Fold:
Amino acid sequence: GPNAFSHEILGVLGELARAAAELPKWAAPRPAKRNLLTLRDEAFVRPEPLGLVLIIGAWNYPFVLVMQPLVGAIAAGNAVVVKPSEVSEHTARLIADLLPKYLDPELYPVVTGGVAETTDLLTHRFDHILYTGSSAVGKIVMAAAAKHLTPVTLELGGKSPCYIDKDCDLAVACRRITWGKYMNCGQTCIAPDYILCEPSIQAQVVENIKATLQEFYGNDVKSSPDYERIINKRHFQRVLALMEGQKIAHGGETDEASCFIAPTILTNVSPDAKVMQEEIFGPVLPIVPVKSVDEAIELINSREKPLALYVFSNNKKLINKVISETTSGGVTANDVIMHYFLSTLPFGGVGNSGMGAYHGQHSFDTFSHHRSCLIKDLKMEGTHALRYPPGSQKKVDWAKFFLLKRFNWRPAGLVALVLLGIVAAVVIKVSLG
Amino acid sequence: NPYAGLVSSLRASWLTGKTRPMGYRVAQLEALGRFLDEKKEEMMEALAADMQEPSFEAEYNILLCKNELNDTLNKLDTWMKDEHVEKNLVTQMDLAFIRKEPYGVVLIMAPWNCPIIPALMPLIGAIAAGNCVIVKPAEANKSTKALLAEVLPSYLDKDCYAVVSTGEEGTVKLLENKFDYIFFTGTSQWWGLMGVLPGPGLWGPCCDTSLPSSGSPPMGRTVMMAAAKHLTPVTLELGGINPCYVSDTCDVQIAAKRVAWGRFFHAGQTCVAPNYVLCSVEMREKLLPALREAITEFYGAEPKESPDFARIAEEKQFQRLQALLGSGRVAIGGQTDEQERYIAPTVLVDVQPSDPILQETILGPILPIITVGGVEEAIDFINARARPLSLYVFSSDKKVLKQVLEQTSSGGFCGNDTLMQLTLTSLPFGGIGESGLGRYHGHFTFATFTHLRSCLQRTTALEPIHAVRYPPYSAGKTGVVRFASELKRQGACTLL
Structure:
């Protein structure tokens, strides 16, 4: 429905338009600053295709997670093997059927299949692999890539923390968190995984989220056309198990037949609880009370680096403190998810949440080889003579003059230096010739 | 795991945040600068002891490091700044920027052929980017390694920077630890004389552990596989079998000098040296005397007596190179002296594509010449092989340069010279495919050791505008969202 359009298709359309508009700029050779010795030469970086790229998609947003990278890979001039996730089988079949009708299947084949097919695919040599999925499989992909020295971009997951400061517009904060947490039934890699806040506001947070859930999905969530389901029974059981033994402040209803789990809030959750040990990837929101922002920061830093980090506060200094004293793939302050939608911001993880990034020009750069080029001519041999043996202290001193960066040259100084350099070159030619 | 203690103490220092402020990084970089200045003589002596490094080459190495250091110190504040990005309609009121963050504890591994630059240049960038660092110099260069291990740490904050000196077994153990970045310079090939196979702990049950029967697994791959276990990003600066095409239209004397300089600098033990020459039969006849003349000009009639010609770094490399002399026929040089690990500046001709000398990165003062019909045949020859680290073309015809550039792939490219693309800090230095992944030099070193963290700071005001994105969904809401975020293809409007 409209959900799929705005979350999946719109993003791809935007990416396509941007790539089409800016490709000439992205693909043009990029001039490099020259030094005194190379002033007469051409120095530039030439973006070139890497060759054959493999894109492995995930099941939670099965369309955009293969299409958006595909746009960048094509823009950079590569051939691409597209491997959509077999778990989202309908989308996989759609992509396999439709893509060859629009793109040359010799250059952009779609490969479908499960673990066995993917394992086999990974034994082959690619020139870049972009994988979206879990950290566990990410390690396997990177190990397979290592056999061929293939660079990788790994878009993985983690527990994205969300700190709510006492001093913030709690109603707006909770509405935005509700939107980001429960969209796609919590199955979003950058969903706020858990909340950190002071105990004094915990009850209010729960009330606000409850009210927002009512606004979004009505009295009977199960019958709302805008609320999704868990992808399959296996993940249903997994998320169900995470709720065991926890204090359910809201929700908790499930229906295995339809893989339905109601939007759920857990309160007074301990950092050692099972639900705090793995990425939830479901509509269950634990609230972990902390005494202060410092305690929140300490808790965040004691765990693996997350894909996204969220902080809600009216206090700019507090926001800056949280950003400065933690790390994560990306950050949105006073909202959730939104940094994903600005394509000038590179989207990716760090540590356990991934490596590399893409979106917009970052996709183009990821799928390109940036080839350094220096084109000289066979003249001005005099200046070059100073580097040839036999060595001498005089030559060392001249080399230092030409190469050593002592301080920042102002433009006028640079002109003077160029003139001096030309004079020097002539002098060297005479004195060493 | 003998290094677990060291790594965890460095990580503890990292978590205190002390390496992050600019003032701290500048102080450490300045201390590194003092090391380069105060210990210059000791470094030159160590290099001379290890491989009879000519003093000019040693000075040049140190000069390039100082260059990087000064460039970094001059620009660090700009490099560290948040980079504000162009916003879209939805984010007009927000702050959108990229924050430059250190990774944490990084490992730098340097190779036997070039002990200084691949150890210190990445170190400069890693410190500048705010990381804690372990440097592992190559085991083969005994004096240089000792200098780095014993003297360098006293200049830097020992809580945050360490130098680890160890052999192959120790290296394997070191790689079992979790690092936040690994920067490795070496080869994708590992000459099978080591005899140390990483145990199952390194390869893991998830990986196919079938190893080539001919000895140890390639080192670059070993490092990346170890990194995969911890999802550690890597830069691998590997060797390359670098081609050098000399076209018929060029000044032979000058081309010969530049090729000879590039090949015999540091006794050929640089990863970017031209590995082999491709030229026509006619050009070869002109090139040989020109090369002979250049070698004599550089090193005199007896290169062995020249103070400007280095030696091979270690015995097993000498043995390897001596064996390679069997390929083709010696046209110039060919003399060796095992005692001194001396191999004369040598040019081989009549080399076949299948000869051993063309199957690996030579890393020695031997230059094979292969004859080809013309530029197309040269391009085919190059493209039939793994993509090299550097590619060189000599021609006074710019069209030929362009043709080779556009029809081949390599880490970097230099027209009408060798090695010089490395001296421009504005050009990123790195390989592709078998010659490596990632890049450094200048700003790119800082960027290598930096995590780019995307930050969007929004306001909680103007909430009604955001209502369009919330459920319950409707066609109307979708329309507004589409209008606000859609980028239309330019030139795609229709005339009404």
About this structure: Chain B is about 40% helix and 15% strand. Confidence is low (pLDDT under 50) at residues 190-217, 492-496 of chain B. Chain B touches chain A through 118 residues (CB under 8 Å). The first strand of chain B starts at residue 83 and ends at 84.
